[in-house]
Specification:
Order of helices and strands of chain A: HHEHEHHEHEHEHEHEHEEHEH
Oligomer: homodimer
CATH superfamily of the largest domain in chain A: SPOUT methyltransferase, trefoil knot domain
CATH class of the largest domain in chain A: Alpha Beta
CATH topology of the largest domain in chain A: Alpha/beta knot
Strand order of the largest sheet of chain A: 7-6-5-9-8-10
Strand content of chain A: 15-25%
Structural class of chain A: alpha/beta
Distance between the termini of chain A: 54 Å
Number of helices of chain A: 12
Amino acid sequence: MISKSQISFVKSLHNKKYREEHGLFIVEGVKMVNELLASSFIIQSIFTTENYLKNLTNINPKAKKIDVNLVTEPELQKISTLQTPNEVIALAQIPFDFRKNHFDIAQIKDKWTIMLDDVQDPGNLGTIIRIADWFGIKTLITSLNSVEAYNPKVVQSTMGSIFRVEVLRIDIEQILQAAKVPVYGALLEGDNLYKAEFSKPGVILMGNESKGISDRIRKYITAPLSIPSFGQAESLNVGIATAIFCSEMRRRQ
Amino acid sequence: MISKSQISFVKSLHNKKYREEHGLFIVEGVKMVNELLASSFIIQSIFTTENYLKNLTNINPKAKKIDVNLVTEPELQKISTLQTPNEVIALAQIPFDFRKNHFDIAQIKDKWTIMLDDVQDPGNLGTIIRIADWFGIKTLITSLNSVEAYNPKVVQSTMGSIFRVEVLRIDIEQILQAAKVPVYGALLEGDNLYKAEFSKPGVILMGNESKGISDRIRKYITAPLSIPSFGQAESLNVGIATAIFCSEMRRRQ
């Protein structure tokens, strides 16, 4: 059973404004919620049908102080962000550092980091978080004007990787100014990715879907890199380009 | 002005059944239609507002026997496959070889080809066609059970590459049986992509989004390859994996 006020509360979290106000985001589906339960994220509540409750592993509501609500399928439908609602919806806390735009330069020193300048498509960001997880990149930094990482479409498309990769949202210009680290920027007119120097840990910087890396940020690139083209396509999708950069970086190690 | 029967004809092409019956598919947007006009595809008709007609380059309706219909924006809205309809819609012929499931073994001998076993998501197929175009792979073979390449969502997500890469739809088992070519198959338990032999031109074979390459097809793989993982993500998206394979193939040349 779910109350009217609970319905309107969960539905409010479909919107960025209320996610930021309450510091909570939505996770849907047995597989995703099981990954959430296995993570260090703090879960506030779970809405599920009786049938699916038994598919949740690692759930110990008392120990974890999770408010578990048994609901009907039509009730789930009302609060879901999906067209075909899943069997379970969880509300979890957005990490403090993301909410507060916190960042410590030490997080990117001598480490590989992905940094996104104004990536707008939720599916692209979700895919990039999954790529970071695959290639063992622990920190992903999104600019203030990028799509918000806790948007339900981003969350679902990470396939659980959002619980393992630290995603931050900060003024990337400020960081690039302060941090003296290599910045490998994806530019169509950059040096050949396969041949250029690309071994010292640094920032893999990707730009907006249509405009690329902005002029404001471009000047911080220490190594402009480009994926050689062998055909006539004008560009590659930003998720695809990120994957090729990360793969090439790992290959060389 | 567009007639009721024209509206229902174009709308019928939103569905695979009628695309196959009429051998026509839909292309939307000034950029896409300009790429179509620059290609060897045969265009049957164009619906556009007067305003946007002048943005179409290479258009010579008489020489190309294109039926150009000036319409209003609300009329375009009625026939569009998009939520925000573009300024122009073209109907073009689906290539004969695709429609008839034609194929000649010579098309894959001593060449790089991408082959897809049961890829279902239109966005993934569109992205893979764009990747093929970027990396200069001229032929992409889809299995009979893959999503149809002339689905409007596939077409739009290729960003024009569908006019430059030959896409075929055939019984891939039959081809793999007959063609004695290297088959590089993406398998989670394959050999390290970065270290394995991967130089002789052959087929880059990718599988279904959740099930991978089917057992029926798997036995034709001559070189099982895997992208090494450095983190905890269970898998990579099929478009991402295809891109990394194609990039690694080109890097070695």
